[in-house]
Amino acid sequence: MAEHLSPSASMTTIRQDDFIQSIYQSLQYIACYHSPDFLQALHEAWQREPAPAARDAMGQILINSYLCAQGQRPLCQDTGIVVAFVQVGMQVQWDAKLSLQEMVNEGVRLAYGDPDNRLRASIVSDPAGKRLNTRDNTPAVVHVELVPGDKVEINISAKGGGSENKAKLAMLEPSDNIVDWVLRTVPTMGAGWCPPGVLGIGIGGTAEKAVLLAKQSLFAPIDIHELRARGPADRAEELRLELYEKVNRLGIGAQGLGGLTTVLDIKILQTATHATSLPVAMIPNCAATRHIHFTLDGSGPAILPVPRLQDWPQIAQESGTPMRQVNLDTLTKADILQWQPGEQLLLSGKLLTGRDAAHKRIVDLITSGQPLPDGLDFHNRFIYYVGPVDPVRDEVIGPAGPTTATRMDRFTDTMLGDAGLLGMIGKAERGEATVDAIRHHQSVYLIAIGGAAYLISQAIKAARVVAFADLGMEAVYEFTVENMPVTVAVDSQGHSVHETGPAEWRPKIADIPIFTA
Ligand SMILES: O=C(O)C[C@H](O)C(=O)O
């Protein structure tokens, strides 16, 4: 005779407030604390890295991580778009008035507006139109699944825009080679996703299912060395090992500067597909990898592990060759002609900021013959591509790392020509036409380390909004910096370290084992 479950016996009740508090606390937590598996993998990669620029980049990310855990401030200025996968047990009932989406949004609102640790509101509504910042980082992206059981399982992440922008989907043919596709595709993603990180790969299903699997795969802990030690159990695990080895052999390295470690792990989830199809999706996770899993069983809000500062690797900034001191306030074109590709500089003085939305407005004003707003003058100034976190406590500004410069390429010739800009600071490579414009205007492009946002903000001594305050984090600020560390990425002759670095290190690392264990 069929057994019937008594509904009342196994029912769990989840209270709205417990759910919202759990979302809020988990988002605050992942904004500040790297997970132990990521820290260990990055520390190992830093210890093994033979390429000085890549090693320095990873060192800065590790120091930044420690400072964020200590100061409880965000790892990256891009505190992400919230993505929640919620599995609801079919024996769960809710003591709630809001929908699940509304409850997640409420948790996001509390987390991003927390006065003790404000996070950056990065979400814009009407993306194909007005692109207005929603000011509280809502709405979240929520995926819900009904599963057997009496608990609610939540995987939540705050996904950085720079890495999400590099997501790829290919509808391969059944006899196509997945490894070839990945190895062809990763170099096209450039450095805007802030390697070293993790590549999530979804295989099978339909187009949208492959993308979801790729995203879900990124929730698993980094364990490629354990997999190697125990040996692959199926084709997906074989692929993980093969891709880990071959992607790292590409020599892209940390921040795309050339080096031994481009990926810390490869994650793969697969499911059945149509006989004609081989959908493959790939989504990278950046160095500010932020995700956590928790369970609600009706007993109250989630309890998250208390991080212990002694678990963070203690590394000191290494003093390599002496850095050139640069006074931004007296700098001339003649000075920047002296700077060499790969040279490290310490910037002091005043610079302006600006990113996507401000660039669009500025270039629209210039091309329609209108003046820039009062007080906004780029002549002989440097621009820093950044959207900072608002300050809390005694800060002048919150974490303020670079955003992907490549998105500003379309505006650069006008900024260097008509607006009179001297040079730029950002992260990742520039396109060919932009490198030509840099050479033509005898300008320069400098990079700061993506993923070292709180560390970088320590060099910012004053900040004020100069124009477009309505753009929120995308407003134009003036920063006064002291000893801000940057590297010459494209010099005035158009030499680019994102070209020369990987080309130099690919052959050099060819004989170094990728797996140590
Ligand atoms: O939005 C940002 O500040 C950075 C962005 O995530 C990027 O990597 O380009």
UniProtKB/TrEMBL annotation:
SUPFAM superfamilies, alphabetized: FumA C-terminal domain-like
Keyword Iron: yes
Gene Ontology MF, one: 4 iron, 4 sulfur cluster binding
Pfam families named in the record: Fumerase, Fumerase_C
Domain Fe-S hydro-lyase tartrate dehydratase beta-type catalytic span(s) in chain numbering: 298-500
Keywords carried by this UniProt record: 4Fe-4S, Iron, Iron-sulfur, Lyase, Metal-binding
Keyword DNA damage tagged: no
Residue span, Fe-S hydro-lyase tartrate dehydratase alpha-type catalytic domain: 21-294
EC number, UniProt record: 4.2.1.2
Assembly with partners or alone: Homodimer.
Protein name per UniProt: Fumarate hydratase class I
Native organism: Methylovorus glucosotrophus (strain SIP3-4)
